[in-house]
């Protein structure tokens, strides 16, 4: 049995791999034949029960004279044999195998290790509900304390002793404001135009077309522009904040801040939240104007009213308090979106996939939250008679 | 070394992620002025141990005593105050990516000192100069190589002249010359600033030159299996896992190293 027998030229070249087991006086001999090069099917499997019963202390040997070339499929097979031999308390003699195969085999552990257990939650439904409730309460606590820290940071910033860098704030303000103008314009213009179009069709039936100015003005100032702008910003800026912070998390940048003792709330969260809270109300006001303009364009083409008349009628019909209401709402929307996005980012895991998950989650929470908040505002306004 | 003051004393520490125990019964004393090596195969929990000492991961059992106080029993403010004495170099540098290298080093100085901007600039140049990175002062982290990031991270770690420095694999990914310079720098920091250093490293030559105490963590039993300086462990220790680690340049990879690597 020479080690290089596998290269002998006499064997057929394309012979398919095969193996057989025989009991011998000294133990078991495994004969291996053929070309074990393609990663093909069954030959790689060595059934655990394929070894004939043998006495402990006997040896498993190989006859590899018929082996004609091999790759990792062969090693996989022999590794299986080795483990089966271990279980049958046969000692394993691989001397007859090609030398390089022996070396590869020596690298592999004798026993298959159980893969490190992934954390799984196997709990009853009650425990699940209880856990979820506790988590929610805890989360509310965490977010509140974050919000508190951000407010503290803001107070410090006003006093002039802040960890926030002005540059970061300006960059964030630019991203949350001027660079969002285009999309805010497009969306609000279209919404205003659609409102006017649908409104005109209906109002025409009652010969009350002139009230389209009130419809568009009040709807956009009070509700639509505030919500639309908030949804746009939740998708645009909220998602970006969450992605940015969770990337910093994966990169250990957040850890580095924490270890250095730089307050996260003041340094990372404050500029993000402040910039959105500052810019959103202005975006809202701007969006309202654009929506009214959208309504104006449609109305001009569909009804008989002078341009000046349209604007006069709008300002006559839409009370300033409607704007104030929308303005205050958009402040809250901004605070909510930014805080939720930052929290989601900070909570994210460390892998690349986690960044995507965090961004998605921030957007979803932002949009759903904004609509829920809006409902709360509607109830309050109704109760207060605004 | 035993006559010297103990800065940090780790007692029966257990570190775990959920139900998975990474290390347990970890105990050692960090003496003032020493260079302490944390050794062990890949994935055995060296970085995790470091993270729990610097306050990023709460241990599940045991104490870390810093100057007589149980670190993890303190409130956040007190822990932050203790952390002011620490400088940490993370395994991949962990530079703040929105800032230039210079701003990275300057930020802790701006936060925690009342220095004037030009004094800060001088200090930043000095720290970057020490690690051979002065030329990169205006570059952003994504514009520099992995080894440079690490050196910049080192400059940032020493910005506030910390008492205790924690290095996670400082020389991995550096060329031999820079790596040797780094060893010199670490020794100089110890002697010049009187700093105490905890270092995680696989670089045996470095460890032999600089470390004077250490602990060897085992990935299979999840416990420390040897204490002592790398030199002592190399010369006297007979535990197979330790000798395999210490003499690995002369031997083929052993089973233990294999097992440890599977956890990576
Ligand atoms: N966030 C985590 N969640 C779960 N397990 C983790 C987490 N981080 C690390 N681990 C596990 O903890 C163990 C130790 O990891 P650690 O990073 O401390 O190893 P290390 O000794 O520093 O290795 P290396 O030399 O490769 O850096 C690993 O087995 C790893 O699987
Ligand atoms: Mg590590």
TrEMBL record, chain A:
Entry annotated with the keyword Repeat: no
Transmembrane residue ranges: 180-203, 224-244, 256-276, 283-303, 323-346, 358-381
Pfam families assigned to the protein according to its UniProt record, in alphabetical order: MlaE
InterPro entries reported in the protein's UniProt record: Permease_MalE
Keyword hit for Membrane: yes
PANTHER family (alphabetical): ABC TRANSPORTER PERMEASE (PTHR30188:SF3), ABC TRANSPORTER PERMEASE PROTEIN-RELATED (PTHR30188)
Name this protein carries in UniProt: ABC transporter permease
Source species: Bombella pluederhausensis
Taxonomic path: Bacteria, Pseudomonadati, Pseudomonadota, Alphaproteobacteria, Acetobacterales
